[in-house]
Amino acid sequence: MNTLTTKLSTEELLAIEHQVCSYGDTVHYAERPKIFSRSEGSFLYDDSDHPYLDLQMWYSAVNLGYGNPRVNNALKEQIDRLPQLACQYLHKEKIELAAKIAQSIEARFGLKGRVHFNVGGSQAVEDALKLVRRNTGRQHMLAFEGGYHGRTLGASAITSSYRYREMYGEFGDRAEFLPFPYTFRFANRDSKACEDYCVQQLERKFEHEYTGAWNPKTGHSEFGAFFIEAVQGTGGYIVPPKNYFKRLETICKKHGILIVDDEIQMGFYRTGKMWAIEHFEIAPDIIVFGKALTNGLNPLAGIWAREDLISPQKFGPGSTHSTFSSNTLGTACGLEVMNIFSESDYEKIVSQKGAYFLKLLKDLQAKHSEIGDVDGLGLALRMEMCQADGNTPNRGLADRMFQRGMEGYLNVGGKNFGLILDIGGYYKNVVTLAPSFEISYEEMDLARDLLDLVICESKT
Ligand SMILES: Cc1ncc(COP(=O)(O)O)c(C=O)c1O
Fold first, then answer.
1. Extended beta strands in 28-151, E state
2. How confident is the model at residue 431 (pLDDT cuts 50, 70, 90)?
3. Are residues 128 and 50 in the same domain?
4. Domain total in the chain
């Protein structure tokens, strides 16, 4: 029997998947992987058309909701007109999208620059690495403990988790990882002391030559750039103290270290600003973006860099290339996403909904001592699961919540729902919440009820 021409049951599909799909991705984090068949707004639906409220929206790739009609239509229109084009030729959507991104950055940071597209976030990070090396001649980078910049070999080298590298050996120059100001896990949860400590760890690199990457005689440092996330994503949606990045910028400037701002997860208003770094009032040298640029509809990512770093003299024709880099479908979706952002006040929408959601999480925290911390910026929200002492990380509880949500039978108001959660953080105990910007207030109330239920049912 040719199994692929017959209509297969879920059980049959899972049995085939078990045999033919690699287990190397993250599908099998779930005890029983789910097969979804459609999506709309804030919901995914399984093959019985059973709804799952999604509170992580594909790690913040689908900020404007599943099946957003405007972005879908932009894709359809592009498919009918110019569906494919080799990236060595131009199409107007690429140019207009690059212009919108460059103009938006100039308006916010007062800097002129250029955009270079690529397919996925990790590839764009690699382009940023190339640009840093090209401009500074240095291969050594600084990055944060708990930072995440992707899984290609170069991006893994600047991502702190050894787990991502252990199986493959070293590639290129591994970054030096410094602590990120994570107040909840710092002594006495003292935000100012935490900020001071993290600044000192950076300053220490330039105290004397024996720290390993600085020559006091020439004043040269070995670091090309500091790769940062303004709000750590995979690290657990950690919001740093307000002044931290200004102090980091001062030190980096003094030592000629570029700042590469990875906005792949937090960009495009996730935190209530177009770029998360805006909250911290510094101007990056390079910005890397991806995910929500196309509302997750077609792969597209990219970098923006200051003109002097990416001018045609520095980064001439053929400096890098990828077949699908500025594909017509992705750029058409990206352009529509930028149009949508420019037509409504997303700073206000996201910060108002974020404040409402945060209040719901605080109410839950008052009820469950296992919620050690809730915090957030805009609609990037965190809920750190602990033992009943509200402090000791409780990975088991977070895992059970994730699995319970995926089972899909949480009864609220006489109706069964599933709940899509993502677990991140240093101790894998943080529920990182990235709901759609289009989530309604009723859906946020439903989220609170579902979270309450999932916590109650996962405690034992
Ligand atoms: C901050 C950050 N950088 C880089 C990446 C890698 O992007 P991609 O998965 O598209 O390669 C991610 C993905 O989650 C991310 O969150």
1. 36-40, 43-46, 51-54, 113-118, 140-144
2. very high
3. no
4. 2
**Mean pLDDT over all residues of the chain?**
96
DSSP state for residue 239 in the 8-state scheme: P
Give the domain extent around 402.
34-67+345-458
Do 192 and 262 have their domain in common?
Answer: yes
Query: Residues for the chain: how many in total?
Result: 460
Expressed in angstroms and rounded, the spacing between residue 228 Cα and the centre of ligand 1 is 12
Q: Which of 141, 149, 227 best tests ligand 1's pocket when mutated (most atoms within 8 Å of CB)?
A: 149
Determine what percent of the chain is predicted with pLDDT higher than 70: 99
**What separation in Å is there between the alpha carbon of 10 and the centre of ligand 1?**
30
C-alpha span between 207 and 213 (Å, rounded):
10
- Where does ligand 1 bind, in terms of residues with CB under 6 Å? 59, 120-122, 125, 148-150, 229, 233-234, 262, 264-265, 290
Asked, for residue 3, whether it belongs to a domain, the answer is no
Q: Are residues 108 and 181 in the same domain?
A: yes
| pLDDT confidence band for 4 (50 / 70 / 90) | low
Nearest to 353 by CA among 373, 372, 374, 381: 381
pLDDT in tens, 365-377: 999 999 999 999 9
Closest residue to atom 6 of ligand 1, CA basis? 150
State residue 5's pLDDT score: 58
Within this chain, do residues 78 and 207 fall inside the same structural domain, yes or no?
yes
Flag whether 19 is in a domain.
Answer: no
User: Are residues 283 and 392 both part of a single domain?
Assistant: no
What pLDDT, on a 0 to 100 scale, did the predictor assign at position 1? 46
Atom 4 (ligand 1) nearest CA? 149
Paired tokens of 307: 């003109």
Beta bridge partners of 118: 301
